[in-house]
Specification:
The strands form two sheets. Strands 3-4-5-6-8-7 form a six-stranded mixed β-sheet. Strands 1-2 form a two-stranded antiparallel ribbon. 44% of the residues lie in helices and 12% in strands. It is of the alpha/beta class and 314 residues long. The protein starts with 18 loop residues before the first strand and ends in a 5-residue tail after the last helix.
């Protein structure tokens, strides 16, 4: 998402307010570790528990009524993979992992596999299970959901499979790990959002910010206008009013971190770190026979990186 794509996780810093950068935007405030999605659905508060339960019921067609039936298992510090802001929880015999993403990432199955390995290790340790015994150890059924609301055109539901990353490419030979991608962008999965009011309200706020940014509003003004709208409409039962400054800081942090990451990736490519792919992409753009999405699939560059090359064409 060009405007509010991937929302980062940060280490504590001394400052508790955004700092104005030289380009008149806001530097990431590293005091705010949570992304908005986790703040809404992944905290251990009564309000967040209820919203998390509603989201689970909407996804699975269940009718659980006790928010405490969902036991949080979120890992806050995962070595090697930046997934510390995700939401994981146990309910019955199902281990769930939810992540919100605004930047398309084809590595989700691998990240999910690594994350679930740690979740299962903790679960087995808590139960005192022994993997070296002759009895088969039973584990909760995994469910890995990625809520996507970026700018790339995706269907309502799609899947990423670990076997797509196997090298050399070949069949999974009986081994697979899958991430289910649920598009919650504008005009997608509206029935699901109607089943879960909290998800609808969250998406309404994010879409409002995105729309404001597309209208070329400065980041802070875009977020503040969306916040005023959310408060006026009483989205999330007054959460935006009660947590206005925290939401403001989280939103500005998320936007500015993505802006930084996007520029860093673009500069890395423009500095020639992948000259062969870049040259191939330039040649295909000059030919004008393929769309940016087709070039992206053929070359292995992202849509954003292809778009970054377009102004360079004669």
């Amino acid at each position: 998402m060009q405007d509010m794509e991937s929302f980062g996780d940060y280490a504590p810093a001394e400052t508790v307010h955004p700092q104005v950068s030289s380009r008149n935007s806001f530097m990431p405030n590293r005091e705010y570790k949570d992304r908005l999605f986790k703040a809404v659905f992944g905290r251990d508060t009564e309000q967040s528990k209820r919203w998390r339960l509603d989201l689970y019921n909407a996804l699975n067609g269940t009718g659980y009524t006790d928010p405490d039936a969902l036991s949080l298992t979120t890992i806050e510090n995962v070595i090697y993979i930046t997934m510390k802001n995700d939401i994981s929880f146990l309910i019955g015999s199902q281990m769930n992992l939810y992540e919100q993403q605004s930047t398309y990432n084809p590595n989700m199955p691998l990240r999910g596999l690594m994350y679930f390995a740690q979740l299962y290790q903790m679960d087995l340790s808590a139960k005192g299970e022994d993997l070296l015994g002759s009895r088969q150890v039973k584990i909760p059924v995994p469910s890995f959901i990625v809520f996507y609301n970026g700018d790339r055109k995706l269907p309502d539901v799609s899947y990423q499979r670990l076997s797509d990353a196997f090298e050399p490419a070949r069949s999974a030979e009986g081994f697979e790990w899958t991430a289910k991608i649920i598009n919650i962008g504008r005009n997608h999965n509206e029935a699901l959002q109607k089943k879960c009011r909290a998800l609808y309200d969250y998406c309404s706020y994010v879409n409002r910010v995105k729309q404001n940014l597309k209208l070329k509003m400065p980041a802070r003004k875009a977020v503040e206008e969306a916040l005023d709208y959310a408060i006026k409409e009483n989205l999330l039962d007054g959460y935006f009013k009660n947590q206005k400054m925290e939401v403001l800081n989280m939103s500005l942090t998320e936007f500015d971190q993505e802006e930084y990451d996007r520029n860093r990736r673009r500069d890395a490519y423009l500095d020639g770190r992948d000259d062969a792919k870049m040259e191939d992409a330039r040649n295909l753009l000059k030919m004008g026979l393929l769309t940016n999405e087709q070039i992206s699939k053929a070359i292995g560059l992202s849509i954003e990186e292809i778009q970054a090359l377009e102004p360079q064409q004669a």
